[in-house]
Amino acid sequence: MNIQEYITNRLDPQIAWYDKKSLLCQKRYKLIQIVEIILAAIIPLLSGYCNTFLISIIVGIFGIIITILESLTKLFKYHENWIQYRTTCELLKYQKYVFLTKSSPYNTTNETVENMFVKNIEQIISSENNQWKSIHVNINNTSNKEKN
Fold it and tell me: Is this model's pTM higher than 0.70 or not?
């Protein structure tokens, strides 16, 4: 197997898989969070009208739904997987582009201006991805501490 076959048959499908899974986890996580926020916001409003049995049942059902959704989020780790899959996807892309342009560390000669340019651009993109991951991991850790 030559390197182009490896990139085509192994690397590109891996990048596509991580990209697809990251997007799927992101969509599921955000959808669940939106539903939880809406239900949690409605509960105090309905609680003011708890003089009827039906409203009490609805408030209880909303609480149950929120608990189930939060449990599913934790069970399937949509937020964590979204972050990890996105990070892995971007790291694979970084390595691919650095390799394809024969930039350091994938060259055996002095780097050209183009090689240095690509490497610098890829490092900027990688740095931004690391910052994004750090922010989202910190947000998740903060919200978990608040819930405990």
Answer: yes
